[in-house]
Amino acid sequence: PLFHKILTTKFLTISGWILISSTLPTDYWKVSSVDGTVITTATFWSNLWKTCVTDSTGVSNCKDFPSMLVCRGLMISAVCLGFFGAILALVGMKCTKIGGSETTKARITCLCGLHFILSGICSMTACSLYAHRITSEFFDPLFVKQKFELGAALFIGWAGSVLSILGGFIFCFSMTEGFSISNPLFSWHFVPAHQTYILPEQMFWREHGKEAEARNYIFNSSGQQVGEKQTNEQTKNKTL
């Protein structure tokens, strides 16, 4: 079951990383169209790198889009983190011969999950910032320029982010669980208590031994008093 869980988690994370990576070259992060009386006369679209307009004949006119440096950095970081996370996932798998002991593999796999979580967070942050700018301009009544709508690339990026974060958490928790089961740090051994039978005479001596010794009493094996010990002074008096 643990092996199937690892494969499923790896499929989720790799799928999320592919979706995140596919948003970088995708054109339609935001899109808008100018409709004529019969056909669409022009389509405006933008991504992380440029903003373009395409007329009805399919000819595009583009210019650089210089104001998305934060989103660009976050998306590139997300792709790089996902790439290194995929490599660490291969190293941390138990079926591979690299990575060292199971303790080292468990740590590598948890680090892999952390990479995918950070990758998903970076991608989701970038897509959310881009979408926030679009929606704020769209619902602003004082904004008189061309208004855009959310493009397909944003939804692809959000989906990839969710898969990466979900797979990263599953990686961390599943591998920690498997490692703790196979290699416990502490082992508890419950040893049953030994029962010992004590004779009545032994019990008597346990309870009254010190008292008898203090009072110089003499008892037989059955616990009955048979006499009194004589001190040194009493022995000297009898001798005299």
Automatic annotation (TrEMBL):
<protein>
    <recommendedName>
        <fullName>Claudin</fullName>
    </recommendedName>
</protein>
<comment type="function">
    <text>Claudins function as major constituents of the tight junction complexes that regulate the permeability of epithelia.</text>
</comment>
<feature type="transmembrane region" description="Helical">
    <location>
        <begin position="151"/>
        <end position="173"/>
    </location>
</feature>
<feature type="signal peptide">
    <location>
        <begin position="1"/>
        <end position="23"/>
    </location>
</feature>
<dbReference type="InterPro" id="IPR006187">
    <property type="entry name" value="Claudin"/>
</dbReference>
<keyword id="KW-1133">Transmembrane helix</keyword>
<keyword id="KW-0796">Tight junction</keyword>
<keyword id="KW-0812">Transmembrane</keyword>
<feature type="transmembrane region" description="Helical">
    <location>
        <begin position="108"/>
        <end position="131"/>
    </location>
</feature>
<dbReference type="GO" id="GO:0005923">
    <property type="term" value="C:bicellular tight junction"/>
</dbReference>
<dbReference type="InterPro" id="IPR004031">
    <property type="entry name" value="PMP22/EMP/MP20/Claudin"/>
</dbReference>
<dbReference type="Pfam" id="PF00822">
    <property type="entry name" value="PMP22_Claudin"/>
</dbReference>
<keyword id="KW-0965">Cell junction</keyword>
<keyword id="KW-0732">Signal</keyword>
<dbReference type="InterPro" id="IPR017974">
    <property type="entry name" value="Claudin_CS"/>
</dbReference>
<dbReference type="GO" id="GO:0005198">
    <property type="term" value="F:structural molecule activity"/>
</dbReference>
<feature type="transmembrane region" description="Helical">
    <location>
        <begin position="74"/>
        <end position="96"/>
    </location>
</feature>
<comment type="similarity">
    <text>Belongs to the claudin family.</text>
</comment>
<dbReference type="GO" id="GO:0005886">
    <property type="term" value="C:plasma membrane"/>
</dbReference>
<keyword id="KW-0472">Membrane</keyword>
<keyword id="KW-1003">Cell membrane</keyword>
